Amino acid sequence: MAKASRPGLSKTRLCPPLTSEEAARFNTAFLQDVAANIRAAGSAADVKGYMAFGPPGSEPFFWGILPEGIGLLECWLPNFGDCLFSAITQQLDRGHRAAVVLNSDSPTLPTSLLVETAQVLARPGDRAVLGPSTDGGYYLLGLKAPHRRMFENIDWSTERVARQTLERAREIGLSVHTLPAWYDVDDADALRTVHAELCADISFAADLVPHRAEKTAALLHALIDGTDLIERLHTAHAGVVERAAE
Fold first, then answer.
1. Per-residue tens of pLDDT for the chain, all 246 residues
2. What is the pTM of this model?
3. Which residue, 44, 52, 126, 117, is CA-closest to 91?
């Protein structure tokens, strides 16, 4: 699920500590790393990759940044749940036996979790796979059939999303395989986490091997060498700690 990179419109929750231009560059790096991760999973499981994108007309942006073999699905609707459902149905309409929606801001998501998703969905019988995010949302949802109910009455962009999605599954009697939690890089705290993971070898989860996220790592190193990014990250963290103390 991807938006074209545009300063002032991309990853705005990362500003500050990032500038709008830097946030747009990270959006691009995340998209490239997610695409590379999907391709890596495809070497170990039957996986085909797409970017469900918007806004309409931004195909040239994606053609310019994505590797060969990643298709495009236009999904630009007013309701986010409708966007997700459209991405699911478009994949199934193309003849795939299962469909997955994956976020675009978890560049270090372990490839093993994508492989596990494909393997679980390949088993007989209807089921779902859910990858919960640490903020209460989800980074991944896989389905074998177009269950619209899974996207209805969900409080999108809140900490209730994963819980409500599991409730919808129970309502329709759908078995759910739950993956380990992972994080989205959508605020300053998460930016520090991905910096620690890629630049200081501090693992987010000791029992999982993170994706190398080469584009994100290269951008982090370039900004660390050429700007005051480290100081900005520390300043943002100090501000959060101070507000919490109050």
1. 899 999 999 999 999 999 999 999 999 999 999 999 999 999 999 999 999 999 999 999 999 999 999 999 999 999 999 999 999 999 999 999 999 999 999 999 999 999 999 999 999 999 999 999 999 999 999 999 999 999 999 999 999 999 999 999 999 999 999 999 999 999 999 999 999 999 999 999 999 999 999 999 999 999 999 999 999 998 977 655 444 444
2. 0.94
3. 52
Q: How does strand 70-74 pair with strand 49-54?
A: parallel
User: What's the one-letter identity of residue 59?
Assistant: E
Q: Name residue 177's beta-bridge partners.
A: 129
Six-digit token pair at 185?
């890089």
Q: How far is CA 201 from the centre of its chain?
A: 21
Q: Would you state the structure tokens that stand for residue 81, as one six-digit string?
A: 């749940």
